Amino acid sequence: METKDKAKHLLLGVDLGGTDTKFGLVSPEGAIIEQAKIPTQAERGGEDTMRRIALALDDLLQRHSLKRSDVRGIGFGSPGPLSTSRGVVIDTPNLAWVNVPVRALLEDLMGLPVVLHNDANAAAYGEFWRGAGRGSSIMVLYTLGTGVGGGICMFNDLLVGPGENAGELGHMVLNYKGPRCPCGHVGCLEAFSSAKAVVRDTLAALDGGEPSSLRGVPRDQIKAKWVFEAARDGDALARRIFHGVGWHLGLASGNLINILNVEMFVFGGAMSGAWEVLYDAMLEGARASCLAMPLEDVKFVRAELGENAGIIGAAGLALKEFGN
Length: 324
Prior knowledge:
Nucleotidyltransferase, domain 5, alpha/beta, 324 residues
C-alpha cells in the first residue's frame, strides 16, 4: 500500500535526546517508513528546539507527498522529569529545561495532537508493542547505559502511575550500605549496574593493585566497553565487575517478579551489548531474591528494536492515545 493510501493512520514518533533528536514516520503496524535526526541544541531553549523539530517533521512529510492532516498524531519521548497529563518537561538536567510546555508548543506549530512521555517509557512501550516483549502480558524494560532507566508495561498498557513517575527502575535501593547514586540516595541499582559504576569499580580495583589486562590502559581512557571486552577475553577483574552488574540486575528483577509476577525482562541500551557476560549472573541474582516457582517461567532477553525503540514506542503511544 502506498504511503498516501494510509492517510489518517500514519503517525510521527519523536525521540528527544541531549545531543540529537530522532524522529520517524511510522505505520499503524509499528514499522518505520522513514527516519531522520537533527541536533537538539537544547541550549537554545525549548521553543527553538520545537520549531526546528516541526520544520524537520514537515520536511519528512513532504518527502512522502503528505500533508499534516494526513497524520493521526505525534508521540514525543523526552528525558524527564515531566508531566504527561500537562505535556510539560518539568526539570530535565540533560537539557537544562525547566517547565517547557512541549506538547502545547508542538501542537501549535504542527496543528496535530501530541502525547508526551518519558523517553525510557516510550522505549519500553516500543519493545512491548513491536519488539522483544510483544505478546507478553507483563514486561519490564531496563535501559542500561550511563545510568539505568526503564519502564513497565502490563496488559497492553504502559504503567505511568498517578504521579506519572512510575518505572524509575534504576533507583530501587538494593543495599543501604552500597555506593552513592547520582540521585543522592545510597545503594540504588544504578549505583551498581550502570556504565559509570563499571568504570568506578574498575578504577578502584586497579588502584587496589588487582592484576588485570586493563592495567596498561590510561586511567582517563577506561570505559565500560573496554572492561566488557576484557571480561569477554577472560580477564578475572573485568569478569568480577560484570558479574556484579548482572547479579544486581537479577536481584532487582527477582524482587519485581515477586511483586508483579513479571513475565519478561527486556534489556536495551549500550550496556546490553555485554549480554554474554551478564546473563548467567542475572539469573544467579534473581534466584537470590525471587521465589522459586515464578522464576521458572520468566524470560530474560535482549531488546530487538535498538535505537529505534523510542521512535516506535512514541508513535505507538500516540496511536493508543488518538485511536486508529
